[in-house]
């Protein structure tokens, strides 16, 4: 099975000798350039991939080199500037020579629409595509405007990225503060997303600076989560009125839209700042919140079993990439290696904890595929929630690789492209 990275790739600089069954070993030196964000890709993969190629291909001297970008969105910015011809020759040679680049799923729509990345032709016929979670396949299958293609119209759909790392929206709770409110007789108990609207939490919640997330949380609480109902255009006039009201109520609950500021204050145990006295619950992405969990024994990371919002980093092919046949094969192998779980070892303990070298709060995509299979099979990998937090929440800790249980994954979705009407509504 071959991966075609371009719509029309006639390059065959190896004289057609690219069959992996070829008895002759290719000892020439190849370098796979991978652009990524610090903390997004595991450094272990670089060494592991070299060994993997020796054992699973005829290419015996392949080095994967990671080129790190400093901030979120820089990968897209570089691609867009190059596409617009705004990058000087020297910078272009340095920045825009990656064979693959990392894009967060939130950037896919823009990158596709602006022509910053190429479709991965033939992806559906590869082994790694078969092993991807169904949710991930849905996430990266878009038309040429970046829009999700519904069933029945898949003839216009292409694969634009390969998810390799994922996380989820979760809550970081000041357990001592929440416990005191629950015991106050106010009728409050933190069990689900809807409890963020409770009057007892007014001015005590921190949310990311993302209008889109506010909309999705509101729709989820209204029971309108999911691909089809995430478009506000599907709401009736009465439902939209309720949506507007609940969105305004949620905003009134929020003390700050700066997750970073809230985390800095929440981890303080000795000197209580005004903000930490007021913020009891921080909502944010697991890769941002989980590293702070160990800063204080008063903090607990949880996710509602009713489901959550997933996020992923994807390998994408830059618009300027023109790989040879050999490099196409090497890229195909890289995609297989980083999505199969080969790069993540198990510690042998009873919990089967994985060690991938990824930042706490992030997991390799093979683990999401495993949880998705368990959910489909109706299996349960342990108690659904910690007894101390109640039956509605699952604690994210080392026992579950800091990821939600399979029953939560079953009820969770990625954010898919929104309609223009929905984006406009975010600002009302």
Automatic annotation (TrEMBL):
Q: Which domain of life is it from?
A: Eukaryota
From the UniProt entry, list the residue stretches annotated as the region Disordered: 1-22
Q: Where is the composition biased (Acidic residues)?
A: 1-14
Provide this UniProt record's keywords sorted from A to Z: Signal
Q: Which residues form the signal peptide?
A: none
Q: Pfam families, from UniProt?
A: SBP_bac_6
Q: Which PANTHER family match?
A: SPERMIDINE/PUTRESCINE-BINDING PERIPLASMIC PROTEIN, SPERMIDINE_PUTRESCINE-BINDING PERIPLASMIC PROTEIN
Q: What is this protein called?
A: Uncharacterized protein
Species for this entry: Chloropicon primus
Classification of source organism: Eukaryota, Viridiplantae, Chlorophyta, Chloropicophyceae, Chloropicales
